[in-house]
Each structure stands twice: as structure tokens, then as C-alpha cells.
Amino acid sequence: MSQKVVINTDIQKGTINKNIYGHFAEHLGRCIYEGFWVGEDSSMDHTNGIRNDVVAALKNLNIPVLRWPGGCFADEYHWKDGVGPRESRKRMVNTHWGGVVENNHFGTHEFMMLCEMLETEPYICGNVGSGTVQEMSEWVEYMTFDGESPMANWRKENGREKSWELKYFGVGNENWGCGGNMRPEFYADLYRQYQTYVRNYGENKLYKIAGGANVDDYRWTETLMREAGWLMDGLSLHYYTIPGDFFKGKGSALDPSEKEWYITMQKALHMDELITKHSTIMDKYDPEKRVGLIIDEWGTWFDVEPGTNPGFLYQQNTIRDSLVAGLHFHIFHKHSERVQMANIAQTVNVLQAMILTEGEKMILTPTYHVFEMFKVHQDAVKLDIDVSSSLYELNGEQLPSVSVSASMKDGQIHVSFCHVDHQNSTSIQIDLRGIEKNLGEITGRILTADQTNAHNTFEHPDQVKPVAYNDFTVSDHQIELRLPPMSVGVLTIG
Ligand code: AHR
């Protein structure tokens, strides 16, 4: 069955903010420790304690922004415990994630160094749930004040003379849950108070992000926008793709039934409805769309890999995850006027990761490959698109079987596609309307598999990786793509 896509190359729909390709790294399981930080005494290849292999792989994604230190961890993190000589840093219990000892060896200086190595913007989340206004205010002073002050002097004593540039600052995380179990009215008042003392020092201008809603908690968004909208630059939203039930069993990462595959796609697509409804509420208070919707946690969440610490949230990553990633990016592109940033959870070894490590070994996941193929959309001009998709049906339910998005940068058009049907091939007729000249050279890459649980392992790291794609025919300004089941890819035109 063929499907029609019209790309109006002469109708531009603004810019796709590169920050929607952002990341999140929490003190959770083996994300920070082992994933990034191995310490200065490690025998592994590292720079000042940070793994060089992981940094090199992530640099290839052009990571625009990295959120840290949590997540739930952020609202029990006391930053002062994580600066100064490492051997004398206070140890704490990471109560949320496995009850393990956190030695605070990776703190503010190490995180800022990591961001410099990745050439990415830091996004720091402050502690509202169990921290004070003074503590948050002093953290910002420590990082961004360049003059003479108690915190700036302390930073200098700790080895960093110049202040850091910091733009993105979150005032708490999930304050409806692990960040304090607050009502939106209460958090809105706290947000107003805390953010007052989150100061702009010198040239450093912060973009303040208020803790936002869980999934479809529209009352939270309404209350925050009404009570504090004018005091924020961004408002967050968290939504995870969980095929099962969060408490009773989320579903297996590696062994999805046909139904679970289908439900995963359905739930990934639900992000569109959530953004639409939260944005509509934001439009009421902010019709100019000044305040960004910041989707700073998203991705798949399955049952942990059998035999691993349940508090470490380690899961394998398959072709299914790659489709979830591709669908999310298309939804974020669609809403790019409101969605100013998104951060997948999480970068290494946790949930829908880019990278998995085992000792010195490292593998790239199918999700990594989507971020790599789709990076061409970062800061590109979005093109108007009309997709008439055929339906992917299971047990009497229906979903669009393809999703397509297009952008233009440096004289080239990039068309990304996701085909979610796990069984049947399809074809898409793409009409590139509004171009006078010939289309020029067309190249493509595709990620696909013949099993719904195809994934990479430390023994077989390249089972799922992009390959050249040329199963298309071009005639004038039309391209017909033939797509295998379970496929995601990008065409480059011109
Ligand atoms: O990403 C894992 C956890 O999920 C985060 O710490 C929390 O914010 C969310 O509930």
C-alpha cells in the first residue's frame, strides 16, 4: 500500500531548535560513575577522570545540551558536598537509586569539565525539595560570578579562576513527586521565591526552567502558567514510553510480544497529544510562545535487565527504541514553536541510553544511531509537510504506519522517516513541491532489522547500525521510497 507525502519546500515553518536533541545524565546506576567518570587513577583511557571513548562517541552526536545532576537525585543533592578536594568530599546515600553510596567525586567542576569536553551547554537542575533558597542562590553565584564574593572566591580556591557560562537552570525536578510531593499551588509559590534569588551575574543570563507536569497533569501546567508564568523562560514536561504498567510490570526490553511492540508505538505517539494539550494551556497565558515547553525527560522505560540492580534502571536497547526516538523527534519538530528543548533519559547505561558500557567495553545502541542520523535537523529550517499515511493495525486498533519530517540546511533538504509496522513493507510517494531546479544527488541511510528485539551486544556490537539506503526511484520532483518493516532513516537531497 502506498502513502503520499507532500513537502512544500517553499513554505518554511521556523527553525528546529537543536536543543530538542538534548540529553540527561543523572547520578543513577552506572550513568555518571562508570559511564562517564572513572576517576583520575583509572587504568582506562581517560582525560582528568572522564572516559575518552564515551566522550568521542557523544561528540559525534553534536549534543547541544546536557542536563544534570537529576532527576530525583537533584532534589536531594547538596552541591557543596561535591566541590573541593575529592578525598575529603562528604559521602551520602543515593536513596532514590539503589541506596548506594555516592562519594561526590563527580561534582560541579567535573560536570562543567565534561560539558567543555563535549562542547555542550550545561543545564543544571537545582534542589527545591530538600535544599534551601540560600543553597540554590549560592550555587549560581559559585558558578557564574566573576568578581570578589564568598562563593566566587571559594570556586577559585577549588581551582577554577574564571566563572563558567551557564544558561539553563532548573528550579527543582518533579516537585509533584520525588521532588517534594507538592501541590501545584505550593510549588508555584516556591518557584516564585527560589527563582528570585537565582541571579544573573554580569553578562551571564540564565534561562530559568520551572518544574513541570507529569504526563497529562494539565492542572499543574495551568496553575504554574497562571501563578508564575511571567517569571519563567521554560516549563518542563516528563513523559516516558512504558508499554506495560509502571508499578506492576513495565514490559521486557528484549522480548516484546507483537502487542507490546504495537503499544510501544502507540504510547510513543501519545507524546503528540500531550504536547498539544499542554501547549494549548500555555498559549492561553503566553500567546507569543515566549515560554518554552522543555521536555527534559522522555524515552522508553522497561523492566530492568534481569540480574541487574533494580535501582539502576539498566535496560537493553533495540530497534524498537530507535523507532520511539524517531517518532519523538518528528513530534518535537511538529511542535517546534513551543518545544524549545528535550532531553532523553538517559545518556549512558540508564533507560533509553545512547551508550552501554561494561568495564572498558562500550557499545552504541540503535537509539544512538537515530540521534546521529537525525542530527542534520539540528537548527535547520523546518519545511511544511502533509503526510497521508496508511494504517498499521493490530487487534482492531489503528496507527499511522509512517511518520515523516523534512528540513533544509546549507542548501540541502533532509527527509527523515519512520516505518513502525513490524511485519509489512510499504512504499511512500514523496512529492517535493515548490522546487524549480533538479533535485540533484540523493543519498540515504537506514536503520532496520528483521527481528523486533534486534540489538547490539558487547560480543556483537554492530548488529543494528545504519546502512546505505537506495531502494527508491526518482522521477522529476517525486521520490518513491520502498521501506522495509521496522525502519528509520534519513534522505539527503541536493
Ligand atoms: O530518569 C529516571 C527518573 O525518572 C528521574 O530521576 C525522575 O525525574 C523521573 O521520575
UniProtKB/TrEMBL annotation:
Record-linked Pfam families: Alpha-L-AF_C (PF06964), ASD1_dom (PF22848)
EC number in record: 3.2.1.55
EC main group: hydrolase
InterPro entries: Alpha-L-AF_C (IPR010720), ASD1_cat (IPR055235), GH (IPR017853), Glyco_hydro_b (IPR013780)
Family annotation (SMART domains): Alpha-L-AF_C
Chain segments annotated as coiled-coil in the UniProt record: none
Catalytic activity: Hydrolysis of terminal non-reducing alpha-L-arabinofuranoside residues in alpha-L-arabinosides
Pathway(s) the chain acts in: Glycan metabolism
Ribonucleoprotein in keyword set: no
Keywords: Carbohydrate metabolism, Glycosidase, Hydrolase
Alpha-L-arabinofuranosidase C-terminal domain residues: 296-487
Quaternary structure annotation from Swiss-Prot or TrEMBL: Homohexamer; trimer of dimers.
Family in the record: Belongs to the glycosyl hydrolase 51 family.
Protein name as catalogued: non-reducing end alpha-L-arabinofuranosidase
